[in-house]
Amino acid sequence: MGIINYQPELSALVATKGHPxxxxxxxxxxxxxxxxxxxxxxxxxxxxxxxxALAAPxxxxxxxxxxxxxxxxxxxxxxxxxxxxxxxxxxxxxxGKGMVFLHHALAAxxxxxxxxxxxxxxxxxxxxxxxxxxxxxxxxxxxxxHDISLASxxxxxxxxxxxxxxxxxxxYLCEIFDDSVHPLLTSNYSFIRENFYSAHHAVTGKMYCNxxxxxxxxxxxxxxxxxHKNSRIVYLQPGDGAETLxxxxxRLLLANAIxxxxxxx
Length: 265
Prior knowledge:
Blueprint: E1 10-17, H1 23-31, E2 36-42, H2 52-55, E3 60-65, E4 69-70, E5 77-78, H3 83-95, E6 98-102, H4 113-119, E7 121-122, E8 128-130, E9 133-135, E10 139-150, E11 164-173, E12 175-176, E13 182-187, E14 197-198, H5 199-203, E15 221-228, E16 231-236, H6 242-245, H7 248-261
Parallel strand pairs: 1-2, 1-3, 3-6, 6-16
Antiparallel strand pairs: 4-5, 7-12, 8-9, 10-11, 10-13, 10-14, 13-15, 15-16
């Protein structure tokens, strides 16, 4: 009799809301992840599950949300996370709770510097200080068809993926902490000013505009891992639109990321 490679069912808590997204396509994507049960909780209720006692039943936390920015005002205002939330997050990281951050989660909690260190980068809607230096607001570009290459083809998160594949999705020109992350995915798109629009212009009534906005050239990294305290962290920049959420390569990538972050890869 052959040896059966059994992988136990994983339980993931998925935080959403704070940014528009295709709900049906996202739900279908989560439902397609074999061996992974996903419980979706919207902001702000999902913040309660950062309490280690409430997070205990879940093997991994997945963030597809964007707390810390109030879009009901124009321009949006940034808010600091409650002290208790920061303490709970620290306790989860000390305990080794795995975390996966998707797409717009990179923009969450702009007034919380440690959050950027946890995730490995920052997307800003307004000029900010980042790692002790002033930076401009970040850039965005919707529906970019680009080729993705595996920077680490032997990593568990990239297992089963072709060395090159194509996605059509939103890309960011933003702060990526290349010195603090392990690269997984790179894009062949040019991360230069001419190819992006200012996020600050977008939230102040001027969509698809980069007038007067002169950021430096950005990183081509669109996926990485890192360790923060005792936790495994994954960030995947793809995940904006229904086309990507339905893509077989993206779904495998997400499933691998969840398993690896849960120490189950």
